[in-house]
Amino acid sequence: ARHAAWYESFAERIRPWITAGRTEEGLAAFRSELANLRAALRHLSESGDASGYCRLLAAMRRSLFISRSYSESDQYFAHALDILTDDLPPGLRGQILMGAGWNLSRGHGAQMERVRQLLHQAVDLLAEAGDDRHLSEAYSYLTVLEDDPDHARRALEAGERSGDPTATARPHHYLGIQMFLAGSYEEALGHFREAMKGLRSAHLTAFAMIWAASTLARMGKTDEAIDLAESAFDVFMEIADTGGQETALQTMCSIQLGLGRADDALESMERRIELWPFEGTDPGGHAIAAHAAARAGRPARSLEHLGLITDEVPADLLHEDSLN
């Protein structure tokens, strides 16, 4: 139990590093102790210490997410939901439900109704506990999942009550996403700029930059958009966030294609493909790369990418004109 308590303290200690720009340092520390953290979770589970298990998992949540350990998180949160009981503190239960919901939303074929249910339950518990920092985070996630501006307003109010600048800026980020999806690009850009000013986390700031770049591209300000996307990529490189690098390169490719810079777009997408974290090929990436290569007048490279996602290339595609 003493060792488990130490690892809970350790996970809590590095959590601010993950959210305050020291992501590479925080992840290095997290990975160096991951085997011991897993052992601590296993010990807490086997000994029936539901409170200790959930406290440690809540402390590990952000590190697991940033390190893209989605399948591992699925297992941990599924078990946490099984052992969650009403006698645990409402704030702790709220954090677990929020983590389980958001983690589930990141998976393929996410059960969105289940995600919404978990997040709404988390909101109720976090409000009961007076945990405004995590309440703001939960409302921010709901802002993305549901078309309800009240979520964003409540997220901002909770963030202001918490006194945490990140908690205030995060709702601007997610409200910007909502406005972007609604086609209100000027309003979206304003929210993203507010988010970039207030966020402490290099990770979240870079993602706000990516969304702002996409917004600028939709507004026809493509030169400014590509500069911002490239700056976001540099930030993701500095903090060793490969998932963010993928997103930045995808955004750069899209903007470069819009600018008619097909060779640059091809280079961006091929760099993104190199970062593909799953087994097998990246079918979407290779399809976009094939399109960019065709636009660049490079049929052989286009066929090479098509060949990686199909058993054979149809004969009519072998004609150069069909690739342009």
What does this structure look like?
Mean pLDDT is 83; it is low at 312-324. The chain is globular and about 65 Å long. The termini are far apart. It is mainly alpha-helical and 324 residues long. Helix 1 runs antiparallel to helix 2, helix 1 packs parallel to helix 4 and helix 9 (149-162) packs antiparallel against helix 10 (165-181). It has helices at residues 2-19, 23-32, 34-46, 50-66, 70-83, 90-105, 112-129, 132-145, 149-162, 165-181, 185-198, 202-218, 222-238, 242-258, 262-274, 283-295, 299-307.
Task: Describe the SSE topology.
Elements: H1 2-19, H2 23-32, H3 34-46, H4 50-66, H5 70-83, H6 90-105, H7 112-129, H8 132-145, H9 149-162, H10 165-181, H11 185-198, H12 202-218, H13 222-238, H14 242-258, H15 262-274, H16 283-295, H17 299-307
Helix pairs in contact: 1-2, 1-3, 1-4, 3-4, 4-5, 4-6, 5-6, 6-7, 7-8, 8-9, 8-10, 9-10, 10-11, 10-12, 11-12, 12-13, 12-14, 13-14, 14-15, 15-16, 16-17
